Amino acid sequence: MNPIKVSVGPLVTAAANNICTSQTPGAAGALTLNGTLVSGGVATLDTPRQILVTTVSNESGKTLVIVGTNWAGDPITETMTGPNATTGTSVLDYKTVTSITVSAAFTGAVTVGTTTTAGSAWIRMDSWALPSTTIQCTVTGTANYTVQQTMDNPNDPTAPVAVASMTWTSISDANLVAASATKAGTITATPNWLRVYLNSGSGSVVMTVAQAGVVGL
């Protein structure tokens, strides 16, 4: 196949309240999106990343439904359990957040902002091609990253897995797990999808993937 490139980072400095500033919902309903990332009622992030929910009280008996879009502009949503006087993060990476609704009144205040972690766009692997795949990750600046894979597929015609329920695991090549320098590696079994995940750092990672036996157009 012709090599495919995806990237993640650099991330603008995270903030705990740049989507929703401190507020205490008095009933079930929508939080007010009023942080510095919000314009026209929509929070737009610098790059798709997980969002951070912080509570001052135990809100674990309530849920938050987050609605937005991903790196491709496709609609995504997930239901998140309220944190217990701590922070919690979304499963999905959001490019935009269009609404956050809570299931009941909160005991104390809540803020919503951005995390320091993010995933790249996904690469769909060819299940009919040869399994041998070469991966190179090029780091600019300071970054810790992991190449991840999943066998789940939200587009499967018989057993689709919801995007928020997909399981991502580190690839088998330890060279590309929790790495902090430019490195290359290989996988010998074909997952459905690959991505590179930025675990921390202010830099960026470009992942180049070449799977054997794929005919380019």
- On the 0 to 100 scale, the average pLDDT is 95
CATH class of the largest domain: Mainly Beta
- Secondary structure tally, helices: 0
**Helix proportion of residues, in percent?**
under 10%
Number of strands: 19
Specify Rg, calculated over alpha carbons. Answer: 19 Å
Q: How would you characterize the largest beta sheet? A: 6 strands, antiparallel
Low-pLDDT stretches are: none
Structural class: mainly beta
CATH topology heading of the largest domain: Jelly Rolls
Compressed to H and E, one letter per element, the order equals EEEEEEEEEEEEEEEEEEE
Shape: elongated
Walk me through what this model shows.
This protein has strands at residues 4-8, 20-23, 29-30, 38-39, 42-49, 51-55, 63-69, 75-81, 87-89, 94-102, 110-114, 118-119, 123-124, 133-140, 144-150, 169-170, 183-187, 193-200, 204-211. It is mainly β and 217 residues long. It folds into two domains: 4-8 and 119-211, Jelly Rolls (Sandwich), CATH 2.60.120; 20-115.
Task: Using brief descriptors, characterize the structure shown.
217 residues; mainly beta; Jelly Rolls; six-stranded antiparallel sheet; five-stranded antiparallel sheet; 19 strands; 46% strand
